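sanity check this:
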Amino acid sequence: MPCPSYWKERKLPTVVGRLFTTVGPRQTGRYGMVIPRFVRQAIANQPITVYGDGSQSRVFCHVEDVVEALVLLMGREDVYGEVFNIGGEGEITVMDLAERVKQLADSESEIAVIPTTRPTSRASRTCSAGSRTCRRSTGCSGGRRRTPSMPRSTT
């Protein structure tokens, strides 16, 4: 039984938060996370690898914004039984992201485009905390506009 049904049928207080592309400190490049991988490559002046043609887009949300949205949802009885997409605002292409990381890191890295035959799903990448429903119910508009910290490696 889906969570909203528990609220409708049994009055069990439930709220669903669906997280999208959360980023923040101490994030690693595991599981295909693009920002830490780009930062690591840029700092090391290694080629920044962009898979596909770079036109794929993402909407990132800082972990602090995600936590704030979840806390707001947990404290609101008037949202029981609802589902919220929690994400950021401001879509960016992977190629533009690579260029931005390169610039912020003051890197000499080249951007290496690696062709891929793997299809990308746009539908799962476009939900954001800026949606009317999330703003109305939580007051969260997402996106602190943070950039990843990029300490220079000493090795």
Remarks:
- The two ends are 53 Å apart (CA to CA).
